[in-house]
């Protein structure tokens, strides 16, 4: 009996070791998949204005250049509105690609042209730091307008909506990568060329991001 018990103990130990090795292998594989997919974002929900409906309109907003900007409403060009936060590191990494898209949109003629507005929340010092690190130029209007995100019921960032020249929402969704922003523009019939994907995050993150997270619960 003693020999049998020893054999059983050895088998159980071997099985436990095998299960542990399998668990570690699965954990590593999940990590590799997450790296390939890139940062995950908030799930798309049915909250907020629906596609093909008129989007909420906000007039008289002021951007980082002191320009008067509106969100939604009738306009000459399609409008891409990207909701971000100063504590969202994924948003920060996305901005250089968004800036390049905005330049392409400003150069586009007729139906191929579009404008880009970034709507964010945070304190003044956080906005200044985010803008300094983001690489956004004059082609993008950056707004501190938490109430706009509330009206669009944005629950996580980065999140984008596209508004057609007649003021209707053509598409909305999470935009963790430049490719997703381009696909969102495609809902308005706008095709843009390839631009570099998100850049590596800064070696020193903005002070506002310390203790923060990539996706805010509320905007």
Briefly say what this structure is.
With 219 residues, the protein is of the alpha/beta class.
Secondary structure layout:
Layout: H1 2-37, E1 58-62, E2 68-71, E3 78-83, H2 89-107, E4 114-120, H3 124-134, E5 140-144, H4 146-151, E6 159-163, E7 169-174, H5 178-186
Describe this structure in words.
The protein is of the alpha/beta class and 219 residues long. The protein is built from five helices and seven strands, in the order αβββαβαβαββα. It has helices at 2-37, 89-107, 124-134, 146-151, 178-186; strands at 58-62, 68-71, 78-83, 114-120, 140-144, 159-163, 169-174. Helix 2 (89-107) links the parallel strand 3 (78-83) and strand 4 (114-120). The longest helix is centred in the N-terminal third of the chain and has 36 residues, at 2-37. Mean pLDDT is 79; it is low at 26-44 and 201-219.
* Uncertain stretches: 26-44, 201-219
Find the structural class using helix and strand composition. Answer: alpha/beta
* Mean pLDDT across all amino acids: 79
User: Looking at the chains present, what oligomeric state does this protein adopt?
Assistant: single chain
Largest sheet: 5 strands, mixed
What fraction of the residues are assigned to beta strands by DSSP?
15-25%
Helix content: 25-40%
Q: Provide the spatial order of strands within the biggest beta sheet.
A: 5-4-3-6-7
């Amino acid at each position: 009996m003693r020999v049998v018990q020893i054999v059983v103990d050895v088998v159980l130990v071997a099985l436990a070791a095998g299960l542990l090795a399998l668990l570690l292998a699965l954990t590593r594989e999940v990590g590799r998949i997450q790296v390939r997919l890139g940062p995950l974002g908030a799930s798309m929900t049915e909250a907020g204005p629906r596609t093909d409906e008129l989007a909420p309109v906000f007039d008289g907003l002021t951007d980082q250049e002191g320009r008067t900007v509106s969100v939604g409403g009738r306009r000459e060009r399609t409008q891409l509105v990207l909701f971000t936060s100063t504590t969202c590191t994924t948003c920060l990494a996305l901005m250089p690609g968004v800036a390049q898209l905005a330049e392409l949109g400003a150069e586009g003629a007729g139906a191929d042209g579009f404008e880009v507005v970034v709507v964010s929340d945070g304190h003044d010092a956080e906005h200044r730091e985010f803008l300094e690190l983001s690489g956004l130029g004059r082609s993008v209007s950056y707004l501190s307008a938490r109430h706009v995100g509330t009206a669009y019921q944005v629950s996580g960032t980065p999140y984008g909506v596209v508004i057609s020249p007649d003021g209707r929402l053509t598409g909305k969704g999470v935009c963790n990568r430049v490719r997703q922003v381009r696909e969102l523009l495609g809902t308005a019939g706008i095709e843009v060329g390839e631009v570099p994907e998100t850049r590596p995050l800064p070696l020193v993150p903005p002070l506002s991001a310390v203790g923060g997270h990539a996706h805010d619960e509320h905007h």
